[in-house]
Amino acid sequence: METLFCDLHMHSCLSPCGSDDMTPANLCGMAALKGLQMIALTDHNTADNLPAALKCCEAYGLLLIPGMEITTREEVHLLGYFPDVDTAVSFGQHVREHLPGKQNRPSLFGRQLIMNEDDEIIGEENALLIGATDLSLWQWTEEIRSAGGVAVPAHINRGSNGLLVNMGFVPEDLHFTCVEVWRDLPCPHTPQAGRHVLHSSDAHYLGDILEPEITMELPESTVSAFLNRISTPPREIS
User: Are 95 and 46 in contact (CB under 8 A)?
Assistant: First the structure.
């Protein structure tokens, strides 16, 4: 088994709420500087900075988990973790078709910058990425799984977009095997029972990226091992 220091929820400068300093090269460099070994880039409703992040992670010796944070019709934030970057990027294009069709206003929401691995701007997303899509929590969960990914409700105990705050419960018919819990706020024990629990930074600024304090044990340092780990219910300890 390998024990990896990780931060599995962070945003690049492509997320409108992410700092322009959160370029793929910067966030990967900061993660490596802090001693992390596995990170996930999970921009809002898009995956277009993942190709650059993958190259940067390879340069720094980090394992990249391709991800995305989708806003469902109920305005619940749902993390999707995918088997590879190409799958995630393709899924992001699908998500874009379900956005409300509003244009981003950089002066209000922030710029949405698409970068290459050399910190060069290669595009700017004009569609507003921060809004809710028109598919439900149930639909997106199924879509993520159909793409070979794992769906994880984000920060379930925090903010209006957390599942417990928004809906008041974790729907049992969705059979979530993993949830993300915000460490600095209380959370009922029931939603965590029988599920893996992730603690991440939800970083929007370089300084928010976690120190080497959260670990995950994997049989090998691969994306498939990570996905298998969080998609398989944890064994009960008698």
Answer: yes
Q: What are phi and psi of 120, to 5 degrees?
A: -100, 135
Short-list 80, 79, 41, 44, CA closest to 62: 41
Element of type H or E holding 68: strand 63-71
Residue spans of the domains in the chain: they are: 2-231
Dihedral, CA atoms, 99, 142, 181, 237, nearest 10 degrees? -170
* Cα distance between residue 36 and residue 106, in whole Å: 31
Q: What pLDDT was estimated at residue 238? A: 30
Secondary-structure class of domain 2-231 per CATH: alpha beta
Alpha carbon 156 to its chain's center: 13
Please give the pLDDT value at position 224. 98
Q: What is the pTM of this model?
A: 0.96
Residue by residue, DSSP assigns 8-42 as: EEE--TTSTTS-TT--HHHHHHHHHHHT--EEEE-
Instruction: Retrieve residue 117's tokens.
Output: 């691995």
29-54: average pLDDT: 98
How many other CB atoms are there within 10 angstroms of residue 232's CB atom?
12
The DSSP bridge partners found for residue 66 are 41
What type of residue sits at position 27?
L
Q: What DSSP state is assigned to residue 119?
A: S
* Integer angstrom CA distances of residue 201 from 179, 205, 211: 14, 10, 9
Distance between CA atoms of 98 and 133, rounded to whole angstroms? 5
CB 217 within 8 A of CB 3: yes
